[in-house]
Amino acid sequence: MESTNRVVVITGAARGIGQAIAKRFLANGDKVAILDVLADAAMEWAGDIADALVVKCDITSKADVQAAKAQVLARFGQVDVLVNNAGVVPKPNLWENIPEADWKRAFDINVNGTFCCTQVFGVEMFGRGGAIVNMSSTSGLEPGKHTGAYSATKAAIVMMTKQTAVQWGEHNVRCNAVSPGLLLTDINKAFYEKPGVYESRVGAIPMARLGEVEDIANAVFFLSSPEAGYINGANLVVDGGFVVNGLKPLNIQVD
Predict the structure, then answer these.
(1) Catalytic residue from among 150, 192, 198, 230
(2) Alpha-carbon dihedral sign for residues 132, 214, 6, 47
(3) What is the pTM of this model?
(4) Does 150 participate in catalysis according to the annotation?
(5) pLDDT over threshold 50, residue 1
(6) Averaged over 66-71, what is the pLDDT?
(7) In this model, does residue 163 exceed pLDDT 90?
(8) How buried is residue 102: exposed, middle or buried, by Cβ count under 10 Å (0-12/13-18/19+)?
């Protein structure tokens, strides 16, 4: 795709999937604003990039998000794409044992934070047009024995995506979601090195490999692009066929 010189706001892009998404847009010649509470970590890789702006931001605070928008507009002048990637994964737990604090924190960051950023940045695209991509998960499509809090928040993201698409389509703002499956990242690498874990998970994926952060970045980039201009309210599952394979039991161990 040729450079579109868009202004892209990405939350939670200091590392992991968010960082891969940011690098994908930067490689296309777009301008990228990275919103993250881990601003120092973001500065380590993006601080010297002319087309990157790092903003320390707590997405659960509307005041923080509004202040971040002011910085983005002062630097780049507009907003064309919003990627709501920031999120938290609560410690796996049985439904009856989920701590209230874990439940509330998961919803505050994953759901309320996504809504806050959508509301604040989305209106900047009204009329001129733009795209919002939310990060859901295959855990939001099917329940898991130990993923109750996380699954509930990611299911909410899917409905928020549809709601935004329905309400803002008339403003020429599209909203879609991406649901990653099982990924291999720097953060969970140690988990996959435990005996039998890697084999059991790869065995549940028809493509016989774990996903990589670049797989998700490519999907997000596509949904934000002009090539996806008539896609609105969709949830793109990027999982190598994991969900349609029946979500074989993964036997996640809880300490």
Answers:
(1) 150
(2) positive
(3) 0.93
(4) yes
(5) no
(6) 98
(7) yes
(8) middle
Q: Determine the length of the chain.
A: 255
- What's the maximum distance between 2 C-alpha atoms anywhere in the chain? 54
Nearest to 148 by CA among 200, 96, 105: 96
pLDDT of residue 17: 97
Element (H, E) at 22: helix 16-27
CA atoms of 204 and 245, how far apart (whole Å):
7
Write the single-letter amino acid at 139.
Answer: S
| Cα 73 to Cα 124: distance, rounded to the nearest angstrom | 9
From CA 244, how far away is CA 124, in angstroms rounded? 37
Q: Helix/strand/coil (H, E, C) string of 172-224?
A: CEEEEEEEECCECCCCCHHHHCCCCHHHHHHCCCCCCCCECHHHHHHHHHHHH
3-state secondary structure (DSSP) of residue 34 = strand
Under 8 Å between Cβ of 112 and 157: no
Confidence (pLDDT) at 2: 53
